[in-house]
Specification:
- The complex is a heterodimer of chains A (about 325) and B (about 325).
- With about 325 residues, chain A is an alpha/beta fold.
- Chain A contains 9 helices and 12 strands.
- In chain A, the strands form 2 sheets. Chain A has an 8-stranded mixed beta sheet with strand order 6-7-8-3-9-10-12-11, with helices on both faces. In chain A, strands 2-1-4-5 form a 4-stranded antiparallel beta sheet.
- Chain B has an 8-stranded mixed beta sheet with strand order 6-7-8-3-9-10-12-11, with helices on both faces.
- With about 325 residues, chain B is an alpha/beta fold.
- Chain B has 2 domains: about 180 residues, P-loop containing nucleotide triphosphate hydrolases (Rossmann fold); about 70 residues, no CATH class.
- Chain B has 11 helices and 12 strands.
- The radius of gyration of chain B is 21 Å and the shape is globular.
- Classes of the chains: A alpha/beta (about 325), B alpha/beta (about 325).
- Chains A and B meet through helix 5, helix 6, helix 7 and helix 9 of A and helix 8, helix 9, helix 10 and helix 11 of B.
């Protein structure tokens, strides 16, 4: 059984609200998205800024209220839960944030940042049990337990991200949403955090929804990849399959734009023209058609749906061919 | 004569016990029309080096304690304020990381570009020249865009406007400090393509500062890798990227996830980049280096030329490359 099943999830934000009036327009940040995550699996979610990937990541664990759709976690729809019922289930799903400088309270010591989660969920019976658990958590993420009484500003960016990971791990979740966990870090530190996340997954069987804009990082860590554009999934599938033979023109362009170290790498560059359109007034038909190098007349009218191009690989493009 | 020659540059900040030297003995050479990439992680001194070329770091707090910066043979560090004003945005132009922060939000972009023209090329400070520049950097409908304010443009378009502004004075050297870091990958690819195109069309030299090794291969003729205020490896792009000699360069290249091939466990560099005020003795990389010998902590190795302009600051460069670390979870 899947750990998480997202069915037709929509998140729309009102814009241009008149005073006392109803909103006339909406940003369709997430529009009709469905996918599933199995226990202990990593699913990568890529897209450019403004495509809705962060909103989707947050809506999945109800940090943002979805407008419509079902979020089935462990067989139970949590989309409509709130208050104490939801809080009790939050132990199961946690989040790691992008900016390790902004996501830790500067006035709390490490022991309180990580221990707060234990206290809220009543996971430590007494002070010595709490201390022991904290020590174990800090060791697990590669921090020195003797630093537990320090404040966030005494740590480097990579170490702070480790504190954020320890905080997420404290309640023994089954799913962690990682929102760009390495994009604020230096290259040499990125690799440390990626390896740490993979080790923790091996040891504890946690599932990750790994949200990032860097396709190389996402491919490295994920078993399956979801590609998002203007609030919709445009391609989904096994990560090797998506990266080796991308079927959607957007994924193809995204892949070709990934910088490669080797100066003699023989890759064909597909340069997209223009910018991502406004999600308030997305283009009709296929949302990608104004930038698509292979768009046809029907792409301007018919909205393509995600369909199977080969087993376990889906693309939302009229022109995508199967095997 | 090289267009730019930096000789043993040393820059200090702070005073007393808190003196930090973010640039410590950097030497670089850039020939006209060539592209040099200065690569390194945050805090390595690459941006301080870049800013010093037009003496943009205010002094105080910065102190240029040693070395020379020769632009067409003239030492920038000895220039008068008047001479400096003429080369800033004239002979040397800059493009920075945050396009949104570099533009003035209360002026139309046309007026901002014209300001550069008025100072450096007053004869052509007209709308027609601004439109030509906007067209050059690939902005669609330039005659309408002229009247836009910066907030009406996307990040990629703002960066193009800044490029147009930088090119207005027909510089011989363009210093681009992390020009694509704030942009999305597809936009980054557009800007890199544009830079390559402009360089060819205009024949200007480019100094690209970046932390992203992937951008280097696309643009550079030469690469210099910086670590803790010093150059640790320097040479032609193929030599450095395909046969890196310094353990830091080697580890840096291996720690980047690859899009091609199967996913292997990433090689990590233990520890973090040292801060300029807290440098280890001897070779500055030795606490994080997997090849380190006892001698590495005692003596700072010199930058030594091996062959074909490829220099390395490591006496152990020819010890065999490290065996791949065993996969922990094979």
């Amino acid at each position: 059984m899947n750990l998480l099943e997202i069915q037709n999830l929509k998140v729309h934000f009102p814009v241009q609200q008149r005073l006392f009036g109803r909103a006339k327009e909406f940003v369709r940040a997430v529009d009709d998205v469905s996918f599933a995550i199995a226990p202990g699996e990593t699913v990568g979610l890529v897209g450019e800024s403004g495509c809705g990937k962060t909103t989707l990541g947050r809506a999945v664990i109800k940090l943002i209220e979805p407008t419509a759709g079902r979020i089935v976690f462990n067989g139970e729809d949590i989309a409509l839960l709130s208050g104490a019922q939801l809080r009790a289930r939050r132990r199961q799903f946690q989040m790691i944030f992008q900016d390790p400088y902004a996501s830790l309270n500067p006035r709390l010591k490490v022991t309180d940042i990580v221990g707060e989660a234990l206290d809220i969920h009543g996971l430590a019976v007494d002070a010595s049990a709490r201390r022991q658990r904290l020590e174990g958590l800090l060791k697990a993420v590669g921090l020195d337990p003797s630093h537990a009484l320090r404040y966030p500003h005494e740590f480097s960016g990579g170490q702070r991200q480790r504190i954020g990971i320890a905080r997420a791990l404290a309640v023994e979740p089954r799913l962690i949403v990682c929102d760009e966990p390495v994009s604020a870090l230096d290259v040499s530190v990125q690799a440390q955090i990626i390896n740490l996340l993979q080790d923790l997954q091996q040891e504890r069987g946690i599932a990750y929804l790994f949200v990032a804009h860097d396709l190389a990082v996402v491919k490295h860590i994920s078993r399956r990849i979801l590609v998002m554009y203007l609030g919709r999934l445009v391609e989904a599938g096994d990560s090797a399959s998506v990266c080796r033979s991308p079927r959607h023109p957007y994924t193809q362009a995204l892949l070709s734009a990934v910088p490669v170290v080797d100066p003699d790498s023989k890759r064909q560059r597909i340069l997209l023209t223009g910018d991502v359109p406004s999600p308030i007034h997305p283009p009709g038909g296929c949302p990608f058609h104004p930038r698509c190098p292979v768009a046809e007349a029907r792409c301007k009218i018919e909205v393509p749906t995600l369909r199977t191009v080969k087993p376990g690989h889906f693309a939302a493009c009229h022109l995508a061919k199967g095997d | 004569m090289p267009l730019l020659e930096i000789k043993n540059l040393q820059i200090e900040f702070g005073s007393g016990a808190k003196v930090a030297r973010p640039v410590d003995g950097v030497s670089l050479r850039l020939e006209p029309g060539k592209t040099l990439c200065l690569v390194g992680e945050s805090g390595c001194g690459k941006s301080v080096t870049a800013l010093s070329i037009a003496k943009l770091l205010p002094s105080p707090p910065a102190r240029y304690v040693g070395g020379e910066i020769l632009l067409e043979g003239r030492d920038v560090l000895k220039m008068s304020a008047r001479e400096l004003r003429a080369i800033r945005g004239g002979l040397v132009s800059y493009v920075f990381q945050e396009p949104g922060a570099a533009l003035n939000p209360v002026f139309r972009i046309g007026a901002q570009i014209k300001e550069t023209l008025k100072y450096h090329r007053p004869a052509v400070a007209h709308d027609s020249e601004v439109i030509r520049l906007l067209k050059l950097v690939g902005i669609p409908a330039p005659d309408a865009r002229l009247r836009n304010y910066p907030h009406e443009l996307s990040g990629g378009m703002q960066q193009r406007v800044l490029l147009a502004m930088a090119l207005a004075s027909q510089p011989k050297l363009l210093v681009a400090d992390e020009p694509t870091t704030a942009l999305d990958v597809t936009i980054q690819a557009q800007i890199i393509e544009l830079l390559r195109d402009l360089r060819r069309q205009l024949g200007m030299a480019v100094l690209l500062i970046t932390h992203n090794l992937g951008l280097v291969g696309d643009l550079a003729d030469d690469v210099a890798v910086m670590y803790a205020g010093q150059i640790v490896e320097h040479g032609p792009v193929r030599g450095v990227l395909q046969h890196p000699r310094h353990p830091y360069t080697q580890a840096l290249i291996r720690s980047v996830p690859k899009i091609e091939g199967a996913a292997e466990r990433l090689t990590t560099i233990p520890g973090t980049v040292p801060l300029p005020g807290w440098l280890p003795g001897g070779c500055r990389f030795h606490p994080r280096c997997s090849k380190a010998q006892p001698d590495c902590s005692r003596r700072l190795p010199p930058l030594t030329e091996l062959a074909d302009g490829h220099s390395v600051r490591c006496p152990l460069w020819d010890t065999p490359p490290l065996a791949r670390p065993a996969l922990k979870h094979a």
